[in-house]
Amino acid sequence: MNLKNRLLALQIRDIPLYETPAWRALLHYQNHRSSIQKDSPFFLSTQGYKDPKAEYIATIEGIFATYANHEDSVICTYPARVRLIAKILQDEQFSALVDNTQCKGLQEFLAIVPVDEVFIEFAAESDKYPGSSMGHIFLHLRGVMREDYFKQIDEHTSLNLKKGDIQSYSISYFANLSPVFNPLDYVRAIYGNLNGIYALEPYDNTNFEYIENQKRSIYRFRLASRDMELLRLHLWELKDKSIDYAFITHNCTNAIEELTNILDLQVGSASKKPFITPIEYLQSLHRRDMATLDEVFIPEDKREFVQVYGYNDILNARKSSKISIGLENAQESLQGFLSIAPIYSDVKNADNSYYEFIESRLGSIEARVQDSQIFLQRIELMHLYSVLDFVRTKNFSKLLSVRFEPNLYNHTQGEMFAPTLNKQTRLLPTLDIGMGFGAYVGNVALYILPNLGYRYEIIHNPYVSAKSGFIAHLPRLRILGDYSVYYDMVGNNRGYDSHMRVFVGLNVAKQIDIFVEGNMYHNLFATPLLYPSQSYVGFKGGISVNF
């Protein structure tokens, strides 16, 4: 490095550009560290994942290295960082030094990925896969070819693009799952111990996958943006970089938000929660006039349903988390209850923005108090449930539930239960999986949902059951009624083998419902576990708030 460049490097090092939000956005900082893994080749400094200044200094040193115009140089591999520094400096000597026109790989990428428009697209929940109930969000990049481009890839394949052609790409963020099904991947995804990666592919492939294969509606939002070139250069920087994936704290929404921050530092979600769903993020952008709904694409199997009911109004959907509090009669006394679900959608919400009855809960918990005694009543690891219009969509209603809960009655000792309701923390595993039929008649859904289950409480108990009922939604009102009957292979170890429920919820404010619910539990069949009470009728009421 000559003396002139050395002096320029020292001068640039002293500029506190590393303190700016723009620099932190390029490093994907959330709070005080980057979402990109610390051992990823994305960082030039070993402390870059937690020290933006260290990464800035390492970047400056790389720019002024003797191999500055080499294909593996900082100028060729980190063009967005270099552009940001040059934009702030506005120094002719520095701009000439960081010319990247000789970076072959970068220039090929820029030639075939023009970006004139940026959309955020939301692939809604799939009727086929209840686990998709939170939806998926990704970017759609569209631009016009500036010049002709031809490349012979192999003897049978070539890429031939003409000036004026429109190129469209999607940029998505996915968990890097095992090539074969591995249940541990999903556990790791929930608790944040899984790699993720940004994937750039032709938009038509993404659109076909969601619309045709997964039967998911796509909502397209036009994003107001500024420096599209900076985003395009940053996509090159992210190529093949490992990024931590966590279903709750760093999912597709967080990853896309980090990219949109490159376009405009004002497009953050402004969420006060440690997590945000795709719909909440889109609602946040729309409220601030940063994204406008451009078009909605409906899969063919769902068009008949949409013609009758319309598509879901996601911009007016409720917030995703929910807390409920209230009282329930417990024979001669009262039980107070408090339930909370941080990632949530619920058919019991008196919310008319959704026309299908789909719900999901992840990590929900319910606590109770009676006679000054506090105990846990239920922990749900996963609850995925849908009642679908089979006639118009040809899709089955589904249930998948993994939870821990007690017997209805209070356990005393051995195989004995008291005639009083449970008031102790005695949570044991229960699993349900089922598939059935639903039909929508006006504002009412009727359904029958057989399922297989397993429960452990003193004895191992596989069982079959059937749930049937109705769900009605009226303006500001939700009414549910259902009846479940269980046939146990070994014996009834839940305290009842039939259950009838009636629920009424009234919307009193945008995010607030008041509700009442009646439950009747009864034992129809003989069981090796003796219950001193064969039936119980309970009523509860309270208030629920989405946040």
Keywords:
single chain; 547 residues; alpha+beta; seven-stranded antiparallel beta sheet; twelve-stranded antiparallel beta barrel; elongated
Calculate the terminal CA-CA distance, rounded to whole Å. 57 Å
Q: What oligomeric arrangement do these chains adopt?
A: single chain
Name the strands of the widest sheet in spatial order: 12-13-15-16-17-20-21-22-23-24-25-26
Number of domains: 3
Q: How would you name the CATH homologous superfamily of the largest domain?
A: monomeric porin ompg
Biggest beta sheet attributes: 12 strands, antiparallel, barrel
Mean pLDDT: 90
What's the number of helices? 14
Count the strands? 26
Rg calc: 28 Å
SSE class: alpha+beta
Helical residue percent band: 10-25%
**Which spans have pLDDT < 50 for at least 5 consecutive residues?**
none
CATH topology type of the largest domain: Porin
| Structural shape | elongated
CATH architecture of the largest domain: Beta Barrel
